[in-house]
């Protein structure tokens, strides 16, 4: 069913607050530097970019790998054989690649793409030719720019060595169902890495990735292209928000630090540093949480007391641990609706929801959707769909091979992405159940029938979680939150249903209350809250106890399920009220600011209690500029005394990986966090 707008908070089950304190007006993410995220590693350290120095460990690579290939004459016989195999154009392209490599600076050598080749057997011959004659080069099969044909890409191997499939010893499972995209699968490294690597040095290079206004996949794609690596070669614990300044740990298999460090001068809005070699690569979910520094601009409130009470209340009382709107996508087709269609076994309906035109999307993309819906021209759609629409492209590529097989087309979507549709529906049920729990029983106490983590027997059999949970992340791919930050099959404490004896002992508080994400091993509460799960699922034509079809991965009964805390308090919570005059000024220091020892363009100025009321009134007066010629623009023109000063609130806090910072901001402001609403605000 077509929708005219994106999902509202109420539709997503987000309807309650943890306190009745009044909120105030504030603009979220006016600038991307107003939202700073630092990953918190598993050992509790906050990940920051603090150094560009190379590690002290030395990677000893064999001499034949260090040496650049000789000039063209040294490979003349092999080149002539290659000419006979692939033709003049491809031979000239290979000759140019060899000359660039021989000239030095392997990190600056771009891969070459050979001519389109529809013959799979011939492509295999080409791969084997390179493996035999050019062991310092790596080949793989990629999609042609027309989105239909296949080509062989030739590039310099990691650390200068290894042939196609060589060096890695076949490590990792075969890459299936990737739909020809660059979407990252679950492998945290490139199996084509060099086999010649010092035994005394870890095989993974770990580094800190700093990025501004870019999503994680896009950033690693840029770095991978410069290094001649697939995006899936990189391992990371979770994706970070795009419209933000973020720092996180990343690993890559058998790449020397100097190659990566050399990219810093060529990268825009991206920096890498804090290099070290480690034994294992990062996997999704291997983090403790995230440290947020969030600046709310254009603050207007009745008084400083309102702001103080609201901020202190957030730190003390916390917030309801809802899944944020980004969990359900930002488009007019919420991802939980696709998940519901999958759970019902309506494969064609699910495909149509993903491919059909939608409101609010870029005009050029919507034109492609409309043309495909009317004419069914798969080739044209593949040529014109942007590469970040991973699900759409994967479906079309499968339908091109197997027309009408909608289930197979859905399975062509990378697993991480296709399972997010089902997880989104589980999150949708959880949000509504959390709202019912708060509305019916409040948040002041535990009641009989509540589910809690078992404190008496914590060593009992644990319950598995297969629901990836996320921070405040948003990737460009299909506008879905894919910041998977909990390991699949993670084990957690066992739970129990609170009885009258537990209430008498008083050993549980509302902080201990959890609600289930439905699955075969998830227990439901022993009170009326359990009913909403089944009622809402039944309304959507879904059974939580029976499989409506034979496809296990799209069935609730085949998923183990898990639990999520209803309530969350921010950790190490701090806040301050400040003033500013320039909307484009930075109000918080980034890692790059600290590294270059420069302060934000305008000093952060704390507000004293004596000044606060006067400044609040001035902020109110200038929040909505008039059309008169005498009105002051929101720019620092004239002397400081004549420029209206505005208020901002800067917050800093840490959340576990399973929590959304936007839900904390919602509790503070008592307003919607939807992108549509935020766009109506101005500083």
Automatic annotation (TrEMBL):
<protein>
    <recommendedName>
        <fullName>TRUD domain-containing protein</fullName>
    </recommendedName>
</protein>
<feature type="compositionally biased region" description="Polar residues">
    <location>
        <begin position="621"/>
        <end position="640"/>
    </location>
</feature>
<dbReference type="GO" id="GO:0008033">
    <property type="term" value="P:tRNA processing"/>
</dbReference>
<dbReference type="InterPro" id="IPR020119">
    <property type="entry name" value="PsdUridine_synth_TruD_CS"/>
</dbReference>
<dbReference type="InterPro" id="IPR001656">
    <property type="entry name" value="PsdUridine_synth_TruD"/>
</dbReference>
<dbReference type="InterPro" id="IPR011760">
    <property type="entry name" value="PsdUridine_synth_TruD_insert"/>
</dbReference>
<keyword id="KW-0819">tRNA processing</keyword>
<dbReference type="GO" id="GO:0001522">
    <property type="term" value="P:pseudouridine synthesis"/>
</dbReference>
<feature type="region of interest" description="Disordered">
    <location>
        <begin position="159"/>
        <end position="194"/>
    </location>
</feature>
<feature type="domain" description="TRUD">
    <location>
        <begin position="318"/>
        <end position="569"/>
    </location>
</feature>
<feature type="compositionally biased region" description="Gly residues">
    <location>
        <begin position="159"/>
        <end position="170"/>
    </location>
</feature>
<feature type="region of interest" description="Disordered">
    <location>
        <begin position="456"/>
        <end position="489"/>
    </location>
</feature>
<dbReference type="GO" id="GO:0009982">
    <property type="term" value="F:pseudouridine synthase activity"/>
</dbReference>
<keyword id="KW-0413">Isomerase</keyword>
<feature type="region of interest" description="Disordered">
    <location>
        <begin position="596"/>
        <end position="643"/>
    </location>
</feature>
<comment type="similarity">
    <text>Belongs to the pseudouridine synthase TruD family.</text>
</comment>
<dbReference type="Pfam" id="PF01142">
    <property type="entry name" value="TruD"/>
</dbReference>
<dbReference type="InterPro" id="IPR042214">
    <property type="entry name" value="TruD_catalytic"/>
</dbReference>
<dbReference type="InterPro" id="IPR020103">
    <property type="entry name" value="PsdUridine_synth_cat_dom_sf"/>
</dbReference>
